[in-house]
Amino acid sequence: MNNSVGNAGRLLWAGLRALLVLTVVTGVLYPLVVTGLAQVAFNDKANGSEIKSEGKVVGSRLIGQTYNLPKKNPDDAEEAAVPDLKWFQPRPSNGLGSNSVNTQYSIILSGATNRSGDNEDLITWVKDAKAAVVKDNSTADHKVKPEDVPADAVTSSGSGLDPHISPEYAELQVHRVAEKNGLGVEQVERLVADHTDDRILGFIGEPRVNVLELNIALEELTKG
Questions:
Q1: Among positive and negative, which fits the CA dihedral 42, 43, 48, 52?
Q2: pLDDT tens for residues 161-197?
Q3: Looking at the DSSP assignment, which residues form a beta bridge with residue 50?
Q4: Hey, which residues does 53 pair with through a beta bridge?
């Protein structure tokens, strides 16, 4: 019996030592090493790919934002958002929802619409979005045609938080942005061209424009 108790004690002590060693190695040392390497080698990405304007963090390169006019009643959750047309607009975010449990804070959730291509709601959203894009981006000197509206102007991304738009959608907004900000069309076209990123390594993905970076450059241009 004494041998059994002794063996059990040795096994428990061996297990406890293994637990302590693994806790220190995997729970303390490994996270510290990985975090340290990330801060040294990938500081920007490790800290959220933050974008600064005038010394202040205004967003992330990885998360899309909306550019809407202030609500007349900030406490009215049912009041429809109205886009501020002096800014370049991002993709629609119909896939976003809010937390229905916490009534004090509206927590935004990412996600797609999860509607099939023949879903009536989705078809209505796309038609309404296309009509709005045509109306909002047509100016006295430039009329947008429905067939010129690209897909990303009327559909949300899989996450609903895509920070990029296609160069085609950015170009479609040039005349409206120029008019609203009192700028020349050529100035705004150069701005879009300067902020258009090519395919990664020349063949991965599609050309894209980061909306937040473009709007920061637009703000700097209007102040210059």
A1: negative
A2: 889 999 999 999 999 999 999 999 999 999 999 999 9
A3: 60
A4: 56
